[in-house]
Amino acid sequence: MSSAPTIPPQFEIVDQPLDTQMTISMGPQHPSTHGVLRLELVLDGEMVVKVTPDIGYLHTGMEKLFEYKKYQQGIVITDRMDYLNPLGNNLAYVMAAEKLLGLEIPTRAQTIRVLMCELQRIGSHLVWLGTHALDIGAMTVFFYCFREREKILNLIEAASGGRMTPSYFRIGGLMMDLPAGFEHRCKQFLDDFPKAVDEFHTLLSGNRIFQRRTQGIGKISAEDAIDWGLSGPCLRGSGINLDIRRANPYSGYETYDFEVPVETDGDVWSRYMVRMREMKESHKIATQALARLQPGPVKADAPKVVLPDREAMKTHMDALIHHFLIVAEGFDVPAGEVYHPIEASKGELGVYMKSDGGPKPSRVHFRGPSFVNLSALPMMSEGEMVADIVAIIGSLDVVLGEIDR
Amino acid sequence: MGLENIIAEALPEVLTTRLDSLINWARKSSLWPATFGLACCAIEMMNATTSRNDLARFGAEVFRASPRQADVMIVSGRVSRKMAPVLRRIYDQMPEPKWVISMGACATSGGVFDNYAIVQGVDKIVPVDVYIPGCPPRPEMLIHAVMMLQDKVMKESVRDRRDIPEEEAREAVVPGTLPVTDGSTARQNTLPESRPYTIASRHERRRSS
Amino acid sequence: MTPENIEPSPEQSLSSETTPSPLVAALQREHPEWIAEVIYAFGETTIVVPREHLVATCSFLKTWPEGQFNFLADICGADRGVEEEPRFEVNYHLFSTTKYHRIRLKVVLNEEDTHVPSVTGVWRTANWHERETFDLFGVIFDGHPDLRRILLPDDWQGYALRKDFPLRGYEPYSLK
User: Fold this and answer.
1) C48 lies in which domain range?
2) Quick check: A5 pLDDT over 90?
3) Which of C151, C139, A84 is nearest to B118 (CA)?
4) Do B78 and A60 lie within an 8 Å CB cutoff?
5) Cross-chain Cβ contact B116/C168 below 8 Å
């Protein structure tokens, strides 16, 4: 080998004795940070003194891109934000636009939206469980979770054509109706699912190693959780009974019968139990939604906003003209601003949409729950050991696509 | 061939082949990827390793976290400008022989995101061997890409993949080319001229309508 | 800059996010100088607050028994356009975990003077939201403990979400 590599000038060598703190960069490429997250850890031996998250390694400029795309075109971009819960992002964006337009969505479309969103919530929690358990050391659970998730992805692909980027919802309803045989396959999946959750409980909840690695770690109190803006399972794990589906209901959620799981300890174990119970509750809601599906239209009655059926477009002149205008020029949305929050799988996903009367929005901002949940990480992890950082990040369920947008 | 027949009769436990074939066969059958999952394609990459589409059947058994122990870097997901130097650093840390699979539309060419934040194609940073289209590509497409890479590995020569010293690796920033033959591309100092961004994006031009 | 008269226009639609109009009326009685304008639209209430009263309004709304807005959902900046005057606005979305109602506070800024007092003392979650607004719009929050870029690289020039920043940026990426 030739000469030793030289140290770039911006790093200086400080000669200090061993009993001082060291700063480690848990860098963007790391198997356990669930994406490109960089943490600057200041350690005193094994104990963490300070954690500073450094985000932005996946910043995609999506919010700027929305301003250059018509409303319908923006739905495609929302899939890539929280890529484990794309139907949730779709729903938030579409509902904000519908609020601006004042559209009324038919019942069948709302029921299918609820069904798909709950299936998506189960899918998102399965990925969380698989990766969290993998980080803590349980590799088998990873494969079991993804096996179940493949069934959900099959269903979503049957409905919309895309496994992970479905873009299934449209402003005014759905892209198209469910295919034939979907209800039967969905029912088959929903019948088998509770056994899978019990399987996960058997593997993890009684496992003493898992309990020791998660109980008492990463505690956050209820007041701190609200002050730091946590939402979703992170907040419900600290004892606050807050679910947007109950607080500000949308899409008919007030008519479904489900519980909101709440645990009081505020540590990693509580958040784990909240999400496991949420999977069962989502299963309940999905079963109810599937049972109450009635035939009906899936798009709102607004020919200037909603694309007509293909058959109508090919045979009727006004449908053809509407189709052309909507696709080529877009529809004008009334001026104003709305903020529409939904309960995504990670917490409160809010869309702030501002229109100035044209076919493209003036500003779209997504309040990503993972962005806010991650900001509470320094508080949760001071005083913990380095190995617990991984468990805490896993319990926060961060998705970097949503943080960095 | 006469020699092989004689050897086969005399010493049936001896196998004759070319050195290239043997080494390439060993290399292609155990391509260990480095974990470089960035965004949505990373989840499909994880799906490709799970039980329904099992990438381990094709030799990609373990995903090594350390790039020093990996053979292939599967860039799955969009590469932002902040992440690009990190990507190059990880690539430089991989020892030869190394290959790069660019998975998904965002890694191949910027994908849906033609804007200020995303590098328009990871081949501006590292040399790529196999490109996979799709947003995200199905796990079967990733398996097909790994098999294509295996075919490509079989065709290479062992002389192409000598380990070049670290300083040359750091200087080898010629985008869009493969580090081949005798390392001569590493010593060139010419960069292609970057086109100035005077052409407005298609979306910007339409904004005035 | 903003009209000083208060215009409570009639509510347009009552959704589950009901307009807390008794709340706004009570707030007008107690501190009329904090409200520059009230907008009711799409079932939401927006109060335009002058910049100097922002922190006082926020802390009052947090502890006031009628409001109890203890949850700051979002801080969102917006650029109205290069020719608009005032150009920037910063929206604060508040939520109450006990009463389940929402309200939006808006601060409008001119282009030359983009300083806003920081509300990190009221809700600690404002820390990252304000950093993001600073990063993307260039709005400076006075009193913020650690105002630096969060999403874009640290040496980035310009503010990306302003309307005069081009979509594709200024130059393509090169390793050098």
Assistant:
1) 21-116
2) no
3) C151
4) yes
5) yes
